User: Which sequence fits this backbone?
């Protein structure tokens, strides 16, 4: 895989990564099985401000799959 993925919580900046990857992904942090709307909005703003990053979602958490 040619990607790197970081989980970000509300207020966390875009990570400084030394990994060379074609795809750079940010995923909003969950609190247990719940996605906080404020954290999601924060991550959406991050990828808007940093177009080389894309938004990713941890769907297995929404589906309660471990």
Assistant:
């Amino acid at each position: 895989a040619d990607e790197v993925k970081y989980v970000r919580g509300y207020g966390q900046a875009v990570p400084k990564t030394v990994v060379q990857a074609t795809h750079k992904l940010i995923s909003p942090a969950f609190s247990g099985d719940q996605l906080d709307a404020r954290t999601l909005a924060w991550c959406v703003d991050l990828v808007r401000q940093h177009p080389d990053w894309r938004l990713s979602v941890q769907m297995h958490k929404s589906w309660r799959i471990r």
Remarks:
- The radius of gyration is 12 Å.
- The chain has one domain: 3-62.
- The mean pLDDT is 88.
- The helical segments are 37-49, 59-62.
